[in-house]
Amino acid sequence: MARAVTNNRKALNTAIAWTIGLLIFFPILWTILTSFKTEAQAISDPPVFLFFDWTLENYSIVQERSNYMRFLWNSVIIAGGSTLLGVMIAVPAAWSMAFVPSRRTKDILLWMLSTKMLPAVGVLYPIYLICIELGLLDSRIALVVILMLINLPIIVWMLYTYFKEIPGEILEAARMDGASLKEEILYVLTPMAVPGIASTLLLNFILAWNEAFWTLNLTAAKAAPLTAFIASYSSPEGLFYAKLSAASTMAIAPILILGWFSQKQLVRGLTFGAVK
Amino acid sequence: MATQQSRSAARFMMAPAVILLLGWMLVPLIMTLIFSFKKYLPMRGGDLGWVGFDNYVRFVSSSAFWPSVITTLVIVGGVLVITIFFGVILALLLDQPMWGQGVVRILVIAPFFVMPTVSALVWKNMFMDPVNGLFAHLWKFFGAEPVQWLSQASMESIVLIVSWQWLPFATLILLTAVQSLDSEQLEAAEMDGAPFLKRFWFIILPHLARAITIVVLIQTIFLLSIFAEIFVTTGGAFGTRTLSYLIFQRVLESQNVGLGSAGGVYAIILANIVAIFLMRIVGKNLDN
């Protein structure tokens, strides 16, 4: 039972929490606001907060000058492709580990997790070399495959913890009624697993979208996604705050929105089910 | 009970994931190991033969090695302390009754979804720029000399940026743990007259211990390999070269693959030491 809390106490909590929340959110808010300013207003002294002439010109300039849509498209393909591919490979694996566990299931799960611990920089050159040999440097295919492999352990783990929660009795009942393995997966398991699969897709799309080691090191002009596009602002162009802000806002907006839906899955996914 | 048939089907379904991950782990790992025992300069002669443990010795004895280890430890340690300290406070605060709790939660979590290159660049230019940055304006407003953040206080700046990115993660996990706290126990303690600090120390903190351990381990693994934040802000200058950034520079910038690979092997060993502890906790959880 929650205790009765005085309104005073609640008001105080509210004030403190909102202040801190806005403080933490401020860099994002400031970026979004700046993206609607002119370059002169963006660096005006003292800074203007809300009362400036709102403009959309930065967005059109960024799009025109750097062909933003191409980077966005690369991000969508790379993040989406790697996530879909990963889930397609992980669903059968997680299914069999959750419902037909053997003595080795736990070891396999932990081993999969251990591959996630491999520091990327430790295998940078081999991967770089393999990409060159296969002619896949600066290609979206290479990044789809690599990001899929990086996130595969998380995908398997998330799906495994979701599948584990599906009562096995239902599957047994279906089996007793003569359902084949295929029917069992298609008509019994899938409908119950859809929410878990959806949140796995969501979280891994976000992780792949924001990945900034392989995307920076293995792409140049052709396959560069938004992470690399933004990094290209790092020197002289970064001085154009309004344009930098517009580009940044466009790069993070889709994920901020998706992220809000995935709060709960975030904990489960990133702690490998250790905290639920 | 699972039949023989479903067992072999299960093995068949697991195969693609297992084989792919096995390849992903072994092939580059073995290549790195091989390179690390060679003098290998792709731009200057290529593979120049075996050199034994030469690269391992040279990597450790180079003047950049120990500073990079210290930088890595300071960044990882600093970010861990900050995110856990404020994470616990925020988690307890967000658990209190208030108006608009959902919205505050969203505000606090948002930085986690910002891609690393964006947050590094936004902080670098719009906040830490010594002329036009918001901090410079703030400092001038109070009559102080603006700070050259990324050169004079480079480590503090990087720790700040990375902490901002990871605070939401710590908060979210700790909040999940706080919410599973048995409130009756707390109320009983309160009625017995235990002050807040005692309740915190003897009931709340022990309850959070597991969640804190998990935050420490998972963040350590990610923080050991932060890259974009340094790549975009200082490029490893001003004493911000971490171990992984040093390896990156050896391999791709100075194209000394043998030396970089030896460094990579060190990094892999280091990450695995942390990983063992994490796996133990996760493994225990699997048994229940």
Question: Your description of this structure?
Answer:
The complex is a heterodimer of chains A (about 280) and B (about 290). Chain A has helices at about 5-35, 40, 55-65, 70-100, 105-115, 125-135, 140-165, 170-175, 180-210, 215, 225-230, 240-260, 265-270. Chain A is mainly α and about 280 residues long. The model of chain A has no long low-confidence stretch (mean pLDDT about 85). Chain B has a domain at about 60-115 and about 165-285: MetI-like (MetI-like fold). Chain B contains 13 helices and two strands. In chain B, a hairpin with a 4-residue loop joins β1 and β2 (about 45-50). Chains A and B meet through α1, α4, α5, α6 and α7 of A and α1, α3, α4, α5 and α6 of B.
Summarize the structure.
The complex is a heterodimer of chains A (276) and B (288). With 276 residues, chain A is mainly α. In chain A, 72% of the residues lie in helices and 0% in strands.
Task: Explain the layout of strands and helices.
The complex is a heterodimer of chains A (276) and B (288).
Chain A: H1 7-34, H2 39-42, H3 57-66, H4 68-99, H5 105-116, H6 124-133, H7 140-164, H8 168-176, H9 181-210, H10 214-217, H11 226-231, H12 241-261, H13 263-270
Helix pairs in contact in A: 1-12, 3-12, 4-7, 4-9, 5-7, 7-9, 8-9, 9-12
Chain B: H1 4-36, E1 38-41, E2 46-50, H2 54-61, H3 65-95, H4 101-109, H5 116-127, H6 134-141, H7 149-152, H8 154-179, H9 183-191, H10 196-224, H11 228-233, H12 243-253, H13 257-287
